[in-house]
Amino acid sequence: MAALINRLTDAKRVVIKIGSALLVDGTNGKLRKEWLTALAEDIARMRVRGQEVLVVSSGSIAMGRVILGLPAGRLKLEESQAAAATGQVLLAHAYQEILGTVNLKVAQILLTLGDTEERRRYLNARSTLSTLLSLGAVPVINENDTVATSEIRYGDNDRLAARVAQMIGADCLVLLSDVDGLYDKDPTRNEDATFLAEVTELTDEIMAMGGGVQTAYGSGGMITKLKAAQIAMESGCNMLIASGKIMNPLGAIEAGEARFSCFVAKDTPRNARKKWIAGSLSSAGTLTLDAGAEKALRNGNSLLPAGVTKVEGNFDRGDLVTLLSSDGRDLGRGLSAYSSEDALRIIGHKSGEIAEILGYSGRDAIVHRDEMALN
Fold first, then answer.
1. Radius of gyration, alpha carbons of the chain
2. Cα–Cα distances in Å, from 38 out to 18, 33, 57?
3. Which pTM was predicted?
4. CATH-assigned architecture of domain 2-269
5. Core-most of 109, 260, 296, 351, by most CB within 10 Å?
6. Tell me: the pLDDT tens digits for 171-205?
7. Is the distance from CB of 348 to CB of 305 less than 8 angstroms?
């Protein structure tokens, strides 16, 4: 069990997903302040030991529907959007107030499906999240239910949390829910259900265990958590499913006082990303390097514009490009931090000159070492 707990405590970057049933009182639609205050203490402790934390929070629709007097049960799309718009104001204020009591800075981020699927928006969202973390803030993320239509939305925050973990290169994703982990069958209907503490591979048999544990406000169930596990594990991110019904749920996990199911990734986020880059088939262009740049890459450094002698192809920021040696050898692949147009303008120049040449401050490297896979 200690080894599984370490998947949480040793993680550099952690995403915590909070379900509506934990955050909102199902009888009156009000925020459970005492519970959120206890969770804030958990997050503050994680920050003190150097961990970066992001929160993916449900609850805006559950809070907003009561204020607007909407009936219980399934809402129409426009009613859900209205409830989300109303509840999100309260939710953001609550996080700011309660996390502020433990000296945590909070930032609100609303994402749609397109922000994690469309390349340019993905890069912008990732850049914003990375900057917030570097500044010591705790991003609180929710799906932008006020503008997303039924055709272009996640519909559950389990998979949204997994996409955020993938986007930001998180080491651990924790799904706090009204269930304490994965069982081989629904424990609410089967007394002989067996609890699974560790999952190392998502077989067809495991996926079939995603029966359905739903709540009055939740839109997911166990199947969405298993789909989230697929995304996380493929990205090199470990995932925990744990009960949030207790106070200080993360602290209880760390102390060995609460059980959970751990989905163990076989790789690190960095290695998983590099394998994805190496395995990608389509390259949008090429960058030709001088001998000094090739040597620098072999030593684990990033590709700076001064070391690039030629740019070919038509590509945008974030597109995959092939790296070539001065004599035409294929050195590997990487994600370009600049479009081909901007890359042509800065190659051969020092990184300190980029802002003057382009009129904006971009990254120092054309291809960062973490965005590169060499042959």
1. 22
2. 13, 9, 15
3. 0.84
4. 3-Layer(aba) Sandwich (3.40)
5. 260
6. 999 999 888 999 988 887 888 889 999 999 999 89
7. yes
